[in-house]
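Quick illustration, no need to memorize.
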Amino acid sequence: MGLYDRDYTQHDYDGGYRPQMRMVFPRITGVVKILLIINVVVFVLTVLFRPLADFAFTWLSVYPLTPLMSLQVWRPITYQFLHDTNGFAHIFFNMIVLYFFGIMLERTWGPRKFLRFYLMCGAVGGIVYPFLAYIGWLPKLPLVGASGGILGMIAACAIMFPNMRVLVFFVFPVRLVIVALVLAGYAILTLLRPGQFGNAGGEAAHLGGMVAGAVYVLSESWRSHFKSKFRHRFGEKRRVSQFNLQVDLDNILDKVHREGIGSLTRREKRVLKQATELERKRNSL
């Protein structure tokens, strides 16, 4: 996977249909910068210190060797920051894609939403693999890498910007939606015939991340509508509750004025105490 370039961001784009592809290095964003630093630092440390690598790959990878290890909830997150120490290609291509597509999504969504999305896609990939391993479809081996989140970003961008072109192998300009379909197709083919292709576990994480990314983007309007409806109903209930409380409070204060505070029932004293606490909280804000 190479660098991306959007038609309308090019200085030499003439408004036609044949923009020239060129490498553009956008200014890095906060979350992407932190993710890059963590991944690179962890990679360097695990390369330099073999005992640290053994510990990390045993306790921080997704490793469905036993049911207990599969239930260790930190693994679907921590495995995303580990990479194969036998070569440089694994982390190199992951970080290249994280840089370009991560910056694009972080600028579109904001840092918090992007980080949640990225970790969620990776976590889904880290759950799909042990599931397939436990049903006997894949071998039970350690799984590491940021590829689940990386492929989730590619799927999301392919839906949001399908006509955007990327330089495959830094040479061939291809529409992003085509690249995403090829990657998904290869992952599916690998999982259908895991014995004939290498890294079937990694492809399980890739496909899981892509599905999570696609579902997240495609369901965004539905989720926004649901959140808006929920907030409206919750706000309406809160306003009704506050109105009822105010009515009760007015009646209680009238009763205190007429008959004294000793005439209040337990429920009326409880309402008065509740109203007092609410007023104190409002004044403290």
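Residues 226-284 form one domain.
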